[in-house]
Amino acid sequence: MPGSLTHRVPDLGALELLLAVARLGSLGGAARELGITQPAASSRVRSMERQLGVALVDRSPRGSRLTDAGALVTDWARRIVEAAEAFDAGAQALRDRRDSRLRVAASMTIAEYLLPGWLVALRTQLPDTAVSLLAGNSAAVAERLLADEADVGFVEGVSVPAGLDSAVIGHDRLVVVAAPGHPWARRRKPLPAAELAATPLILREKGSGTRQVLDAALG
Fold it and tell me: Residue 131 above 60 pLDDT?
C-alpha cells in the first residue's frame, strides 16, 4: 500500500485512549486515567475518527460507548498496544543487560597484579555486574578503547593517545633486578642512567607502558 503507516495508523496514545473508553464506558474517566483533560481526549478521538474515516465513539449524557466500527478497531488496537508493551519490555531488558555489563581492558601488569582485587571489590558493591576482561599491553588497551571494544581501560605509562580521557589512580616504581652473582647485586650506589642505558637488559616489548616509562627515564 502506498504511503507511510504513520499517516494511516493512529498513535499509541490515541489507541490507549480508545481502550480506556471501551473499558470504562466514559470518555471523562478514560481521560482521568491517562492524565489528560476531557477536551484533549475528545479532540484526540475526533482526530482518530477523521484519520480512519469512521465513527468510533457515541457520546451521550449517560456516557460513551463504542460504535460497531469502534469495537472492531478496539480489538485491533489491543493487539497493537500489547505488541508495543512487549517491545518496550524487550528494549528495557536490553538496557538492563547493557547497564550491567562492563568491558574492561587492562595492561598485562595491571591485569595480573591489581585487577583481581578491584574486581572482588566491584562484585561486593555491584554483584549483578558482569565483567569481561581483555588483557594486552598498553598500546593494545588504547586501541580497544578507541575501537569501542572496551568501556574502561587500565594502563601504566607517561601518556595516553589522543581521543582518550585519563585519570591517575595510583603510582608505582621500577626497580632493576639482577642475578646474585652480577656486579650490580653488590653495588650500594645508584646506577647512573647512562650505565643503565648502555647495558643489555631484558625489557618489555614496545607498546608496553612499563617500557614507555623506562624509555622516557633514560631518554
Answer: yes
Q: Give per-residue pLDDT as tens, 170-188.
A: 888 888 898 999 988 888 8
Rounded to whole angstroms, the Cα distance separating 153 from 107 reads 8
pLDDT at 2: 53
73 burial class (0-12, 13-18, 19+ CB within 10 angstroms)? buried
Which pLDDT score, from 0 to 100, does residue 105 have? 93
Mean pLDDT of the chain: 86
Residue pointed to by grid coordinates 643489555: 200
100-154: CATH topology: D-Maltodextrin-Binding Protein; domain 2 (3.40.190)
Q: Which amino acid is at 53?
A: G
Supply the pTM of this predicted model. 0.49
- How many C-beta atoms surround the C-beta of residue 41 within 10 A? 24
Write the Ramachandran bin of 53: left for phi over 0, alpha for psi from -120 to 50, otherwise beta.
Answer: left
Q: Which 3 state secondary structure label does DSSP give 24?
A: helix
CA 16 – CA 134 distance, rounded (Å): 47
**Domain at 5-96: CATH architecture:** Orthogonal Bundle (1.10)
SS3 content of the chain, % helix, strand, coil (to 5): 55, 10, 35
The 3-state secondary structure of 137-202, one letter per residue: CHHHHHHHHHCCCCCEEECCCCCCCCCCCCCCCCCCCCCCCCCCCCHHHHCCCCCCHHHHHCCCCC
Residues 6+ apart with CB under 8 A from 91: none
